[in-house]
Amino acid sequence: MDISIHLVIYPALFVFSSTWFIYQLSCYLYYLRNVDHDTNNLLYIWLHKNKKFTILSLIISSILSLILFLFLTPSAKLLMLFLGALSLVYPIPLPFKNKTNGLNYRLRDIPFIKIFLISLTWAGTAVILPALQVGHSIPYHLFLLQFIFIFFITIPFDINDIEIDNAVGVKTIPILLGIKKALILEGFVLFSLVCLPVIWGNKPFFDNFNPILYINLILFYTLLLFITIFYAIKLPKWAIMLIFDGSMIVYFVLVILFKKGFI
């Protein structure tokens, strides 16, 4: 899918502002919901000291998101409304009580749903949104490949967050299957990332299959798997975010370098 960046500048800005809003909302709700008010938790401490900044950030990002939303095409708006509704409902308490801890259920409390919603939201935003904005046919192969990649880089977060998620009752893959089985699953996900481009031929790789790009991506995926196996449980949260959130930027840069003929 070859789309000029200037054609999707408004969707890109909208995604940035709305993602910032959802992230700030999720963090603030975590602060309000914190069961034991753990004063040793760095996120809790920061939010406690910067409540005004968080609220101001929520207001600014919500206003920017609403303004930029107006520049999307009708079909892109429908997609963003759907994904935005999922993102908003995900951390918000629903009007149903959990008899175990007395807290309201949230969408995120459904077993395994966290990783699938994250993968769906980011794959839809990265692949389907630009296609809808410019009237391009939806590249379903690329969407599935992106979904699997996001799934791949989300498992390390779940491993790293296992104590926090367990404390607040979020049923992730590492919690329900155990870390060892989660790492085995991570290996299978890597295997699918490596095999699917070969099975599909040229469809996922932006109109042509490039062996050099393919090899670079395999090395990149393998490095991420190595970090997941040996360091995901040990690294501080900021390092996990830097490496695995940053991996999306590295992925993008690799593809751009390929498109420009540098690799």
Protein architecture, described:
This protein has a domain at 139-263: Four Helix Bundle (Hemerythrin (Met), subunit A). By secondary structure, it is mostly helical. The relative contact order is 0.09. It has helices at residues 9-33, 42-49, 51-69, 74-89, 113-134, 140-160, 162-168, 173-177, 179-200, 211-231, 237-259. Helix 5 packs antiparallel against helix 6, helix 6 runs antiparallel to helix 9 (179-200) and helix 9 (179-200) runs antiparallel to helix 10 (211-231). The chain is globular and about 55 Å long. The chain has 11 helices and no strands. Helix content is 72%, strand content 0%.
Outline the biggest β-sheet. Answer: none
Instruction: Output the CATH topology of the domain at 139-263.
Output: Four Helix Bundle (Hemerythrin (Met), subunit A)
Radius of gyration: 19 Å
The average pLDDT score comes to: 82
The CATH architecture category of the domain at 139-263 equals Up-down Bundle
Features:
Four Helix Bundle (Hemerythrin (Met), subunit A); globular; 11 helices; mainly alpha
Short description:
By secondary structure, the protein is mostly helical. The protein is 72% helix and 0% strand. The protein has a domain of 125 residues: Four Helix Bundle (Hemerythrin (Met), subunit A), CATH 1.20.120.
Topology overview:
Elements: H1 9-33, H2 42-49, H3 51-69, H4 74-89, H5 113-134, H6 140-160, H7 162-168, H8 173-177, H9 179-200, H10 211-231, H11 237-259
Helix pairs in contact: 1-2, 1-3, 4-5, 5-6, 6-9, 6-11, 9-10, 10-11
